[in-house]
Amino acid sequence: MSIRVGQAAEAPPFQKAALPLLDDTQLRKNVRHATNVITRKRAAVVGEQHDWQQLRASASAIKEHTLRHLDRYLEQFEKNCTAAGGHVHWAADADEANRIILDLIQQQGGKEIIKVKTMTSDEISLNPALEAAGIHPHETDLADMIIQLGRDKPSHIVVPALHKNRQQVREIFMREMGLNELGDRPEDLTTAARNYLREKFLRVKIGFSGANYLIAETGGVCVVESEGNGRMCLTLPETLITIAGIEKVIPTFRDLEVFLQLLPRSATGERMNPYNSLWTGVHKGEGPQNFHVILLDNGRTRILSDQESRQTLRCIRCGACQNACPVYRQTSGLAYGSIYAGPIGAILTPQLFDMQHAQTLPYASSLCGACYEVCPVKINIPEVLIHLRGRVVREQQSSANLEAIGMKVMSRIFSSRRTFESAQRLGRLGQWPFVSEGWVKHLPGMLGNWTEVRDLRPMPAQTFRTWWKNRQKQKLKLEDSPGTQVSQKPGLKENHHA
Amino acid sequence: MPDTTNTREAILHRIRTANADAPSSDYALIERAYQQSASMDRAEILKTFADRLHEYDAHVTEATQQTVPAAIAEVLRRNHQHSAIVADGFPPSSLPEGVHWQQESELNTAEGAISGCEVAIAHTGTIIIKGSRRITLLPERLLCVVYASQVVETVPEAFARLQPLAAEPLTFISGPSATADIEMTRIRGVHGPRFLDVILLQD
Question: What is the pTM assigned to this prediction?
Answer without folding.
Answer: 0.89
